[in-house]
Design goal:
Layout lengths: L1 E5 L4 H12 L3 E6 L17 E4 L5 H8 L4 E4 L13 H22 L4 E7 L7 E4 L3 E3 L6 H5 L15 E3 L12 H20 L3 E6 L1 E3 L12 H10 L5 E3 L5 E6 H13 L6 E5 L4 E3 H9 L7 E4 L14 H7 L10
Parallel strand pairs: 1-2, 1-4, 2-3, 4-5, 5-9, 9-13, 10-12, 11-15
Antiparallel strand pairs: 6-7, 6-8, 12-14
């Protein structure tokens, strides 16, 4: 099978390329090289055909997609960003880039498989439950509460602190930042293309991905990379709030494997799947693990950022049922 991987020199995309090639597939990569200062990174696979181009350019998509039977769309601007001033860049790269690609595929009459890299951020806050009042849906946290250390959501019915529970794919979406909004729009565009062309559009909602090739020293990096970068400089990693924020950290090789399963499954899955390890950890757990053996300790500073969520942990049960996906990489940072 010939597969187009957009962002195929990036963090997740390059691992998808590795596994596809190992399985004997033909791969074409569309990548702008912007994240690599214009140079091809050392991990680029010579077996893959490389089209250097911007995902916002339908012409680049057209060149890369010629003759492909499946598309894995990984190219995106990621991370929470700096502030709302980033809104145009996110919408341009993520929304307009996806629209350009789907338009080009439509023009070519593409009717193969579609797999989209989405994110757990589309859920907003995760699933919350009260021991007395059942599932609850708290609104965004207020800056005033974060400033004085009120980090947990209170139950709207009884005001007790809420506990978390695993999020299912059927949970309502509620993006709380610009990046999240663009990822949800990407999902919608893929699903519309799938319906109008009679093809399966598999949407993979990644949880917190970490592992080799993750970008460092950028405001758009994930928390694991930010912590690793600080420790590499001999600086204590800064942990916001009290470090009790709960996440699911899933290794990039597991995420890549989920993509390949979606691309090659005997029956294509049309819909949304959580891609997670199934083992939740706190942000402080992560920072402590990264500091291990360095003589450093996490610096828990309180406060917080609007747009960050307190707890979001997924159930990967549907991905296991529909794709046979199960995370196998040990937690190692």
């Amino acid at each position: 099978m010939r597969v187009l991987v957009t962002g195929g020199l990036g963090f997740v995309g390059s691992h998808v390329v590795d596994e596809l090639i190992a399985a004997g597939h033909d791969v074409v990569v569309l990548d702008s090289l912007v994240a690599h200062a214009g140079s091809v990174p050392e991990w680029a696979r010579p077996e893959a055909d490389l089209v250097v181009g911007d995902a916002r350019d339908p012409g680049a998509w057209s060149r890369a997609a010629e003759g492909v039977e499946a598309v894995s769309h990984q190219a995106a601007r990621v991370g929470l960003g700096v502030d709302f001033a980033d809104v145009r860049a996110y919408v341009d790269d993520n929304d307009a880039g996806t629209a350009a690609g789907l338009w080009a595929l439509h023009q070519q009459g593409f009717a193969g498989r579609l797999v989209l890299a989405s994110s757990m951020v589309v859920y907003g806050e995760g699933r919350y439950t009260c021991t007395d009042d059942g599932d609850q849906h708290p609104g965004p946290r207020a800056a005033a509460d974060l400033a004085v250390g009120r980090f947990e959501h209170p139950c709207p019915a009884c005001d007790r602190p809420l506990g978390w529970a695993p999020v299912l794919e059927t949970a309502p979406t509620d993006p709380r930042n610009t990046y999240a909004a663009t990822k949800l729009h990407q999902e919608h565009l893929f699903q519309i293309y799938g319906r109008e062309h009679g093809v399966a559009a598999t949407v993979l909602r990644y949880h917190n991905v970490y592992g080799p090739r993750c970008p460092l020293d950028t405001p758009y990096a994930g928390v694991a990379s930010i912590f690793r970068s600080a420790v590499a400089r001999g600086v204590r990693p800064t942990v916001l709030e009290d470090g009790g924020q709960t996440r699911d950290f899933v290794h990039v090789r597991d995420v890549a494997h989920a993509n390949v399963l979606a691309l090659t499954a005997e029956v294509a899955y049309d819909g949304v799947l959580n891609i997670a390890s199934g083992t939740p950890r706190t942000v402080l757990d992560l920072a402590t693990a990264i500091c291990a053996g360095t003589g450093l300790e996490p610096n828990v500073v309180g406060g917080g950022r609007l747009g960050d969520v307190r707890h979001v942990v997924a159930s990967p049960a549907r991905a296991r049922e529909r794709l046979g996906f199960e995370a196998t990489e040990p937690f190692s940072v």
